[in-house]
UniProtKB/TrEMBL annotation:
Stored InterPro entries: FAD/NAD-bd_sf, GMC_OxRdtase, GMC_OxRdtase_N, GMC_OxRtase_C
Binding-site positions, FAD: V169, V309, P613, Q614
Pfam family, any one: GMC_oxred_N
Keyword Ubl conjugation: no
Alphabetical list of PANTHER family matching this protein: GLUCOSE DEHYDROGENASE [FAD, QUINONE] (PTHR11552:SF217), GLUCOSE-METHANOL-CHOLINE GMC OXIDOREDUCTASE (PTHR11552)
Species this protein is from: Galleria mellonella (Greater wax moth)
Annotated SUPFAM superfamilies: FAD-linked reductases, C-terminal domain (SSF54373), FAD/NAD(P)-binding domain (SSF51905)
Family membership: Belongs to the GMC oxidoreductase family.
Presence of the UniProt keyword Flavoprotein in the record: yes
Protein name, entry field: Glucose dehydrogenase [FAD, quinone]-like isoform X1
Sequence ranges assigned to domain Glucose-methanol-choline oxidoreductase N-terminal in this UniProt record: 167-190, 345-359
Gene name of the record: LOC113515057
Amino acid sequence: MTNLRLFFQILQISNKKILNSFHSSRMISSPEICQCPLVDEGASIVNSPVCNGIILFMMLIESYMKGRCDIASPCNRIVSEKNPEPEYDFIVVGSGASGAVVASRLSEVDNFKVLLIEAGGPEPIGSRIPSFYRTFWFNELVDWRYRTVPSNYCLDQEGQGCMYPRGKVLGGSTLLNGMMYHRGHKADYEDWEKAGAQGWSWDENLPYFDMTEGNKQIGSLVSYKYHSASGPMPVQMFNYQPRAVDELVNAIYESGLPIITDMNDPSTPDGFSIAQTFNENGQRITTSRAFLRAKWERPNLSVLLHSHVSKVILDGKRAVGVEYIDTKGNKKTVRASKEVILSAGALNTPQILLLSGVGPRETLRKFNIPVVEDLPVGKNFRNHYGATLYFMLTKLNNTQALDWNVFSEYILRRTGPMSSTALTQVTGILYSSLADKKRRQPDIQIFFNGFYAECSKTGRIGEPSGPCPTNGVNVSANAAALLPRSVGYITLNSTDPLDPPLFYPEYFSHPHDMIMIKDAIKYLKMIFDTDILQNKYGIKLDPEYTKQCANTGQEWSDKWMECMARVHTDAQNHQIGTAAIGHVVDPDLMVYNIKGLRVIDASVMPTQTSGNPQGTIMMVAERGAAKIKEKWMEKNARISNLGQSKAMYQKLRVGPYGPYDTEVTITSDTNVKKSVHKLEILSKMTKMRSRS
Ligand SMILES: Cc1cc2nc3c(=O)[nH]c(=O)nc-3n(C[C@H](O)[C@H](O)[C@H](O)COP(=O)(O)OP(=O)(O)OC[C@H]3O[C@@H](n4cnc5c(N)ncnc54)[C@H](O)[C@@H]3O)c2cc1C
């Protein structure tokens, strides 16, 4: 109620022109009557670091979103358990890309009692808007706000190390991420097997990729051969591409680089594409939205929010529960009769293991932690990384991206600029000069940033959304190594569980990485040099971001590229490997020599996949949950459970106010049709050209 009152007060003081355009549609002028009371919770978009200072318009947007039942989804919310029981069968720590899947799959079994413990709180409404995807980074209510230990990279971050945004919220990092869906390449999983992950080959993993994926474009954009429509996680292109995306695709085409329709089709491993992402009905879908809504009809699944797990309780070499710190700062314990599953992510799982006495003997001794098992926890820390280049489009002078028109389009139809991540939906996965083309394993990726509909002062039509640069529109691009050879480590800073661990990624410690990154920058130069970008847009390197490398000689020279990579290091958020299969856990994901303790998250991936990792991590979670069921379920129950899980998700898809409210036939949208059509034509032309 408070919100609505505030909203009407704000409306009264707003300018008349805005009000007229606002009321032109009756549908957006009144809130819907949802079947459950609206709840005001989680972080707000209003004072996010990205939108700082443009309060009025953002408040209005947020209030309106709260009045839309499918966006606010007030029914069947995940609420924190007030009185947790002293013991559960399974305790899952962390509700991100992996934990939400594991908890959901385990709770499909009626007689498993499952507790999911999450350090963060509920999902903020604003996070559902794809164009606000950077809005919550570094917001302490939803982000761990980690940084690496400062070193000779990320030099533009004033000696503070590289920023690592990381979700501390229901859904974990799937609430902060760019939503791109990639499964990696077959050769990546051959590398896993070589590193000790027996049984994790591409073919063996495929059914588990399929279990998760609910692809909406099979037949219209992608083939059933490489995708599945039956999983709970919706996958499809955003239903909107701004003109800038078309122009960028045209520039890439002009540069002669390959364009592909499906990044997950093994026959086209390299090329640029408009990515398929985790979205539906114009909204981000986190793993918590896709998998945990089942909770409302599963009394056997409990969730504890704002509860920070400090360690696993070990009785000799058996895990028997966890200790956690509740909202009031009190230490509590809860027991697990069957297993504790760590899904706290590659940055936090090693910290929990170390604090529990599982880790390198020398580290544990340094902190006076009794050694339960000497294992290389925190070692083998890997991440994708590269360089960010900043550009100006000097022939454009309007940065307007979010105004009342855009907002009305979103509220009425869930489309338009707010329903996508603008340039970020375009990406390219390519071969460097070091790549193994025979094994079809590309090793670099290009990302783009810009044209976001994320902020506005008042929303007045035609008004610039931020301090408008006098000399053009700013965009940027990342040139990242996907299979870097530098390997770092994570260790403790202290024995205080609330003290962030120390991250030493050791970027650039292997000379091959710089070669890959420079090759990626050279691809960017090919796009930069196109007629479209040079003549139509007047693209230039932004001098503000090249000045630190001015003394290296010519722009785009080897020395210049090396300098740019160290100054504007692009530390991606694809950290893995800190409790890897073959090092810390066995191929069943059980911690070596400890009973009842499994790790199921990005930590177990022994080597990188050559693409965005969320798809792979959800696959790992599906397989991990299946292994647990295999171990603890009766044979007959296992068979009936399969049917039950399918029925459960069917039911959810037609639920009253879940994420699957509206079945959107995305291919009927003209924008998507156009860009799909365009991609298809471009892809055919590219194939013809490569044959000739
Ligand atoms: C900005 C950004 C952009 C990205 N873009 C993409 C993309 O486009 N596509 C893609 O595939 N991947 C992307 N990723 C990577 C992807 O999101 C992560 O790899 C993935 O979410 C990791 O899954 P996880 O389950 O291991 O960890 P997370 O998803 O991070 O989940 C870990 C959970 O555990 C909780 N937790 C941690 N410690 C504790 C504790 N002590 N007690 C209780 N709970 C705890 C956390 O709060 C969190 O909810 C991106 C990531 C970021 C941050």
